[in-house]
Amino acid sequence: MKILAIETSCDETSIALVEATGDLNEPKFKVLKNIVHSQIEIHKEWGGVVPNLAKREHLKNLPILFKEIGTEDFDLIAVTVGPGLEPALWTGVTFAVELAQRFNKPIIGVNHLEAHLYSFLLPEKDKTPVELKFPAIGVLVSGGHTILASFTSLTEFEKLGETRDDAVGEVFDKVARMLNLSYPGGPEIERLAKDGDPKAFDLPRPMINESGYEFSFSGLKTSVLYLLRDQGYYNADGLKPTSESKKDIPLKLVQDLSASFQSAVIDVLVKKAMRATNEFGAMSVFLGGGVAANQALRQALKEACERNGLQFVCPSMEFNTDNAAMIAVAGYISHLTGHSHPLIANSNLSL
Ligand code: KG4
Ligand code: ZN
Fold this sequence. Notes:
The chain has 351 residues and is of the alpha/beta class. It has 11 helices and 10 strands.
Protein backbone atom coordinates (compact mmCIF):
# COMPACT_ATOMS: atom_id res chain seq x y z
CA MET A 1 0.00 0.00 0.00
CA LYS A 2 1.01 3.61 -0.46
CA ILE A 3 1.11 5.72 2.68
CA LEU A 4 0.97 9.48 2.75
CA ALA A 5 2.64 10.59 6.01
CA ILE A 6 2.65 13.96 7.73
CA GLU A 7 4.99 15.20 10.45
CA THR A 8 4.74 18.60 12.21
CA SER A 9 5.68 17.88 15.84
CA CYS A 10 8.48 20.42 16.08
CA ASP A 11 10.34 22.62 13.60
CA GLU A 12 10.32 20.48 10.47
CA THR A 13 7.31 20.35 8.19
CA SER A 14 7.50 17.04 6.39
CA ILE A 15 5.31 15.00 4.03
CA ALA A 16 6.32 11.64 2.61
CA LEU A 17 4.93 9.04 0.24
CA VAL A 18 6.09 5.55 1.17
CA GLU A 19 5.27 2.18 -0.34
CA ALA A 20 4.85 -0.48 2.32
CA THR A 21 4.58 -4.25 1.88
CA GLY A 22 5.01 -7.38 3.98
CA ASP A 23 3.79 -8.48 7.38
CA LEU A 24 5.03 -7.75 10.88
CA ASN A 25 7.80 -10.33 10.54
CA GLU A 26 9.19 -8.66 7.46
CA PRO A 27 7.75 -5.24 6.74
CA LYS A 28 9.39 -3.55 3.76
CA PHE A 29 9.42 0.07 2.78
CA LYS A 30 10.28 2.07 -0.29
CA VAL A 31 10.45 5.81 0.13
CA LEU A 32 8.95 7.35 -2.99
CA LYS A 33 9.17 10.90 -1.67
CA ASN A 34 10.27 12.42 1.61
CA ILE A 35 10.12 16.20 1.63
CA VAL A 36 11.45 17.92 4.73
CA HIS A 37 11.12 21.66 5.07
CA SER A 38 13.31 22.81 7.94
CA GLN A 39 12.48 25.97 9.88
CA ILE A 40 15.91 26.15 11.50
CA GLU A 41 16.76 29.49 9.92
CA ILE A 42 13.58 31.01 11.38
CA HIS A 43 14.09 29.71 14.93
CA LYS A 44 17.87 30.22 14.95
CA GLU A 45 17.68 33.86 15.98
CA TRP A 46 15.66 32.86 19.08
CA GLY A 47 18.16 30.15 20.06
CA GLY A 48 15.45 27.46 20.04
CA VAL A 49 12.05 26.56 18.64
CA VAL A 50 9.23 29.10 19.16
CA PRO A 51 5.94 27.11 19.16
CA ASN A 52 3.73 29.75 17.55
CA LEU A 53 6.25 30.52 14.84
CA ALA A 54 6.45 26.79 14.14
CA LYS A 55 2.66 26.64 13.87
CA ARG A 56 2.57 29.56 11.44
CA GLU A 57 5.24 27.98 9.24
CA HIS A 58 3.58 24.54 9.24
CA LEU A 59 0.26 26.10 8.20
CA LYS A 60 2.00 27.86 5.35
CA ASN A 61 4.10 24.88 4.22
CA LEU A 62 1.73 21.92 4.47
CA PRO A 63 -0.31 22.72 1.32
CA ILE A 64 2.89 23.56 -0.58
CA LEU A 65 4.52 20.25 0.37
CA PHE A 66 1.37 18.28 -0.46
CA LYS A 67 1.38 19.89 -3.89
CA GLU A 68 5.03 18.89 -4.28
CA ILE A 69 4.11 15.27 -3.49
CA GLY A 70 1.96 15.68 -6.56
CA THR A 71 -0.36 12.69 -6.32
CA GLU A 72 -3.66 11.66 -4.84
CA ASP A 73 -2.75 8.02 -5.29
CA PHE A 74 -2.36 6.77 -1.71
CA ASP A 75 -4.22 4.21 0.42
CA LEU A 76 -3.65 5.42 3.96
CA ILE A 77 -2.75 8.65 5.74
CA ALA A 78 -0.42 8.54 8.76
CA VAL A 79 0.05 11.59 10.94
CA THR A 80 2.08 12.38 14.06
CA VAL A 81 -0.24 13.02 17.02
CA GLY A 82 2.49 13.42 19.65
CA PRO A 83 4.66 14.02 21.52
CA GLY A 84 5.77 17.48 20.45
CA LEU A 85 4.66 21.10 20.53
CA GLU A 86 0.90 21.13 20.78
CA PRO A 87 0.17 24.03 18.38
CA ALA A 88 2.55 22.47 15.85
CA LEU A 89 1.04 18.99 16.21
CA TRP A 90 -2.48 20.32 15.65
CA THR A 91 -1.56 21.79 12.26
CA GLY A 92 -0.56 18.33 10.98
CA VAL A 93 -3.49 16.52 12.56
CA THR A 94 -6.02 19.00 11.17
CA PHE A 95 -4.45 18.96 7.71
CA ALA A 96 -4.39 15.13 7.68
CA VAL A 97 -8.03 14.85 8.79
CA GLU A 98 -9.07 17.28 6.04
CA LEU A 99 -7.18 15.26 3.42
CA ALA A 100 -8.74 12.03 4.69
CA GLN A 101 -12.19 13.55 4.28
CA ARG A 102 -11.44 15.11 0.92
CA PHE A 103 -10.04 11.91 -0.61
CA ASN A 104 -12.07 9.49 1.47
CA LYS A 105 -9.04 7.62 2.85
CA PRO A 106 -8.41 5.90 6.18
CA ILE A 107 -6.17 7.74 8.63
CA ILE A 108 -3.93 6.56 11.45
CA GLY A 109 -2.46 8.52 14.38
CA VAL A 110 1.25 7.88 14.99
CA ASN A 111 3.49 8.19 18.03
CA HIS A 112 6.58 10.17 16.99
CA LEU A 113 8.80 8.20 19.39
CA GLU A 114 7.82 4.85 17.88
CA ALA A 115 8.54 6.35 14.48
CA HIS A 116 12.09 7.33 15.51
CA LEU A 117 12.69 3.83 16.84
CA TYR A 118 11.38 2.22 13.65
CA SER A 119 13.34 4.52 11.35
CA PHE A 120 16.10 1.90 10.94
CA LEU A 121 13.58 0.01 8.76
CA LEU A 122 13.98 2.65 6.06
CA PRO A 123 16.66 1.45 3.67
CA GLU A 124 19.31 3.58 2.09
CA LYS A 125 18.80 3.96 -1.63
CA ASP A 126 19.32 0.66 -3.48
CA LYS A 127 20.21 -1.20 -0.29
CA THR A 128 18.22 -4.00 1.27
CA PRO A 129 17.20 -3.29 4.85
CA VAL A 130 18.87 -5.30 7.59
CA GLU A 131 16.88 -7.86 9.47
CA LEU A 132 16.94 -7.04 13.15
CA LYS A 133 17.61 -9.90 15.57
CA PHE A 134 15.42 -10.06 18.65
CA PRO A 135 15.49 -9.60 21.59
CA ALA A 136 16.85 -6.13 20.95
CA ILE A 137 17.62 -2.97 22.90
CA GLY A 138 16.32 0.26 21.35
CA VAL A 139 18.13 3.51 22.12
CA LEU A 140 16.09 6.62 21.40
CA VAL A 141 18.01 9.88 21.57
CA SER A 142 16.26 13.01 20.31
CA GLY A 143 15.81 16.64 21.26
CA GLY A 144 12.94 15.82 23.58
CA HIS A 145 13.59 12.25 24.68
CA THR A 146 16.20 9.80 25.88
CA ILE A 147 14.76 6.33 26.28
CA LEU A 148 16.08 2.81 26.55
CA ALA A 149 13.60 0.07 25.65
CA SER A 150 13.74 -3.69 25.48
CA PHE A 151 12.07 -5.28 22.41
CA THR A 152 11.09 -8.94 22.15
CA SER A 153 9.64 -8.28 18.69
CA LEU A 154 9.02 -5.24 16.53
CA THR A 155 5.79 -4.48 18.36
CA GLU A 156 6.34 -5.91 21.84
CA PHE A 157 8.50 -3.69 23.97
CA GLU A 158 9.02 -2.46 27.48
CA LYS A 159 10.38 0.95 28.35
CA LEU A 160 13.38 0.42 30.66
CA GLY A 161 14.15 4.00 31.55
CA GLU A 162 14.32 7.57 30.37
CA THR A 163 15.92 10.85 31.35
CA ARG A 164 14.90 12.53 34.59
CA ASP A 165 15.73 15.96 33.22
CA ASP A 166 17.30 17.10 29.94
CA ALA A 167 17.17 14.87 26.88
CA VAL A 168 20.45 14.17 25.10
CA GLY A 169 19.68 16.44 22.14
CA GLU A 170 18.50 19.15 24.50
CA VAL A 171 21.74 19.04 26.47
CA PHE A 172 23.77 19.21 23.24
CA ASP A 173 21.74 22.29 22.30
CA LYS A 174 22.14 23.93 25.72
CA VAL A 175 25.88 23.31 25.96
CA ALA A 176 26.23 24.64 22.42
CA ARG A 177 24.44 27.80 23.46
CA MET A 178 26.86 28.24 26.39
CA LEU A 179 29.70 27.93 23.90
CA ASN A 180 28.08 30.55 21.70
CA LEU A 181 27.37 28.07 18.92
CA SER A 182 24.27 28.29 16.79
CA TYR A 183 21.06 26.26 17.01
CA PRO A 184 20.69 23.29 16.68
CA GLY A 185 23.77 22.65 18.76
CA GLY A 186 24.23 18.92 18.23
CA PRO A 187 25.80 19.08 14.77
CA GLU A 188 27.94 22.09 15.81
CA ILE A 189 29.32 20.29 18.88
CA GLU A 190 30.03 17.22 16.79
CA ARG A 191 31.90 19.31 14.20
CA LEU A 192 34.03 21.12 16.80
CA ALA A 193 34.65 17.97 18.85
CA LYS A 194 36.49 16.45 15.88
CA ASP A 195 39.43 18.79 16.52
CA GLY A 196 39.20 18.66 20.31
CA ASP A 197 40.67 16.41 23.00
CA PRO A 198 37.97 14.26 24.65
CA LYS A 199 40.25 13.86 27.68
CA ALA A 200 40.94 17.58 28.12
CA PHE A 201 38.28 17.87 30.83
CA ASP A 202 37.22 15.15 33.18
CA LEU A 203 33.48 15.77 33.08
CA PRO A 204 31.00 13.69 35.12
CA ARG A 205 29.18 10.69 33.61
CA PRO A 206 25.89 11.07 35.52
CA MET A 207 24.26 7.86 36.79
CA ILE A 208 26.64 5.72 34.74
CA ASN A 209 27.08 3.12 37.48
CA GLU A 210 23.63 3.29 39.00
CA SER A 211 21.37 0.32 38.64
CA GLY A 212 18.32 0.83 36.47
CA TYR A 213 18.14 2.60 33.15
CA GLU A 214 17.35 6.18 34.00
CA PHE A 215 19.47 9.05 32.79
CA SER A 216 20.23 12.56 33.99
CA PHE A 217 22.14 15.11 31.94
CA SER A 218 21.48 18.44 33.63
CA GLY A 219 24.44 17.96 36.04
CA LEU A 220 26.79 17.45 33.12
CA LYS A 221 25.49 20.65 31.56
CA THR A 222 26.09 22.52 34.84
CA SER A 223 29.65 21.16 35.02
CA VAL A 224 30.37 22.67 31.63
CA LEU A 225 28.89 25.96 32.80
CA TYR A 226 31.00 25.99 36.01
CA LEU A 227 34.09 25.23 34.00
CA LEU A 228 33.40 28.20 31.75
CA ARG A 229 32.66 30.37 34.79
CA ASP A 230 35.90 29.33 36.51
CA GLN A 231 37.83 30.31 33.40
CA GLY A 232 36.19 33.71 33.47
CA TYR A 233 33.71 33.39 30.60
CA TYR A 234 30.61 33.59 32.76
CA ASN A 235 29.73 35.86 35.68
CA ALA A 236 30.27 34.31 39.08
CA ASP A 237 26.92 35.36 40.56
CA GLY A 238 23.98 34.76 38.25
CA LEU A 239 26.02 32.65 35.84
CA LYS A 240 24.81 34.87 33.04
CA PRO A 241 27.30 35.38 30.26
CA THR A 242 27.98 38.88 29.11
CA SER A 243 27.74 39.09 25.37
CA GLU A 244 31.38 40.23 25.13
CA SER A 245 32.79 37.51 27.34
CA LYS A 246 30.91 34.81 25.45
CA LYS A 247 32.58 35.86 22.23
CA ASP A 248 35.97 35.50 23.83
CA ILE A 249 35.91 31.74 24.41
CA PRO A 250 38.97 30.58 22.46
CA LEU A 251 38.43 28.03 19.71
CA LYS A 252 40.70 25.46 21.35
CA LEU A 253 38.66 25.59 24.54
CA VAL A 254 35.40 25.24 22.58
CA GLN A 255 36.82 22.24 20.72
CA ASP A 256 38.15 20.55 23.86
CA LEU A 257 34.95 21.17 25.80
CA SER A 258 32.85 19.90 22.90
CA ALA A 259 34.93 16.74 22.66
CA SER A 260 34.98 16.15 26.43
CA PHE A 261 31.25 16.78 26.74
CA GLN A 262 30.36 14.57 23.77
CA SER A 263 32.50 11.75 25.08
CA ALA A 264 30.85 11.94 28.53
CA VAL A 265 27.39 11.64 26.95
CA ILE A 266 28.48 8.76 24.73
CA ASP A 267 30.09 6.87 27.62
CA VAL A 268 26.81 6.97 29.58
CA LEU A 269 24.67 5.90 26.64
CA VAL A 270 26.97 3.07 25.58
CA LYS A 271 27.48 1.74 29.10
CA LYS A 272 23.76 1.66 29.89
CA ALA A 273 22.80 0.18 26.54
CA MET A 274 25.39 -2.57 26.95
CA ARG A 275 24.21 -3.31 30.48
CA ALA A 276 20.66 -3.64 29.16
CA THR A 277 21.76 -6.06 26.40
CA ASN A 278 23.35 -8.18 29.09
CA GLU A 279 20.38 -8.16 31.42
CA PHE A 280 17.81 -8.88 28.71
CA GLY A 281 19.90 -11.30 26.66
CA ALA A 282 19.62 -9.03 23.64
CA MET A 283 21.14 -9.99 20.31
CA SER A 284 21.09 -6.51 18.86
CA VAL A 285 21.02 -2.79 19.55
CA PHE A 286 19.29 -0.21 17.40
CA LEU A 287 19.45 3.54 17.51
CA GLY A 288 16.96 6.28 16.60
CA GLY A 289 16.28 10.02 17.01
CA GLY A 290 18.06 13.17 15.92
CA VAL A 291 21.18 12.49 17.98
CA ALA A 292 21.57 9.19 16.11
CA ALA A 293 23.06 11.43 13.40
CA ASN A 294 26.13 11.80 15.63
CA GLN A 295 28.92 9.75 14.04
CA ALA A 296 30.92 9.48 17.24
CA LEU A 297 27.91 7.96 19.02
CA ARG A 298 27.17 5.59 16.13
CA GLN A 299 30.80 4.50 16.03
CA ALA A 300 31.08 3.99 19.81
CA LEU A 301 27.88 1.93 19.97
CA LYS A 302 28.92 -0.06 16.91
CA GLU A 303 32.30 -0.89 18.43
CA ALA A 304 30.76 -1.83 21.79
CA CYS A 305 28.31 -4.13 19.97
CA GLU A 306 31.11 -5.71 17.96
CA ARG A 307 33.10 -6.37 21.14
CA ASN A 308 30.06 -8.12 22.59
CA GLY A 309 29.09 -10.07 19.46
CA LEU A 310 25.88 -8.06 18.95
CA GLN A 311 24.23 -6.74 15.83
CA PHE A 312 24.13 -2.93 15.59
CA VAL A 313 21.56 -1.15 13.46
CA CYS A 314 21.01 2.55 12.90
CA PRO A 315 18.97 4.61 10.44
CA SER A 316 20.54 5.89 7.24
CA MET A 317 21.61 9.50 7.69
CA GLU A 318 18.59 11.20 6.10
CA PHE A 319 16.16 9.53 8.52
CA ASN A 320 17.69 10.45 11.90
CA THR A 321 16.21 13.88 12.43
CA ASP A 322 12.49 14.51 12.07
CA ASN A 323 10.98 13.32 8.79
CA ALA A 324 7.65 12.00 7.57
CA ALA A 325 9.01 8.78 6.02
CA MET A 326 9.49 7.34 9.51
CA ILE A 327 5.90 8.33 10.34
CA ALA A 328 4.76 6.20 7.40
CA VAL A 329 6.73 3.24 8.81
CA ALA A 330 5.12 3.55 12.25
CA GLY A 331 1.76 4.10 10.54
CA TYR A 332 2.12 0.87 8.56
CA ILE A 333 3.08 -1.10 11.67
CA SER A 334 0.05 0.37 13.49
CA HIS A 335 -2.09 -0.57 10.51
CA LEU A 336 -0.83 -4.15 10.74
CA THR A 337 -1.43 -4.40 14.48
CA GLY A 338 -4.73 -2.53 14.26
CA HIS A 339 -3.65 -0.03 16.88
CA SER A 340 -4.02 3.68 16.11
CA HIS A 341 -3.63 6.66 18.40
CA PRO A 342 -6.59 9.05 18.66
CA LEU A 343 -6.45 11.92 16.19
CA ILE A 344 -5.88 14.47 18.90
CA ALA A 345 -2.63 16.36 19.42
CA ASN A 346 -1.03 14.98 22.56
CA SER A 347 2.12 16.87 23.49
CA ASN A 348 2.95 14.45 26.31
CA LEU A 349 2.39 11.16 24.53
CA SER A 350 4.99 8.67 25.77
CA LEU A 351 6.38 5.41 24.46
O1 KG4 B 1 14.70 13.82 16.55
P1 KG4 B 1 14.90 15.28 16.35
O2 KG4 B 1 15.05 15.80 14.96
O3 KG4 B 1 13.74 16.08 17.01
C1 KG4 B 1 13.09 15.64 18.18
O4 KG4 B 1 12.21 14.74 18.05
O5 KG4 B 1 13.49 16.13 19.24
O6 KG4 B 1 16.17 15.65 17.21
C2 KG4 B 1 16.70 16.94 17.22
C3 KG4 B 1 17.90 16.95 18.15
C4 KG4 B 1 18.46 18.33 18.42
O7 KG4 B 1 18.61 18.50 19.80
C5 KG4 B 1 19.79 18.31 17.71
O8 KG4 B 1 20.78 19.13 18.32
C6 KG4 B 1 20.17 16.86 17.81
O9 KG4 B 1 18.97 16.17 17.59
N1 KG4 B 1 21.16 16.48 16.79
C7 KG4 B 1 22.42 16.07 17.09
C8 KG4 B 1 23.06 15.87 15.85
N2 KG4 B 1 22.18 16.16 14.86
C9 KG4 B 1 21.01 16.53 15.45
N3 KG4 B 1 23.03 15.86 18.26
C10 KG4 B 1 24.30 15.46 18.24
N4 KG4 B 1 25.00 15.27 17.10
C11 KG4 B 1 24.43 15.45 15.89
N5 KG4 B 1 25.12 15.26 14.77
ZN1 ZN C 1 11.92 13.71 16.58
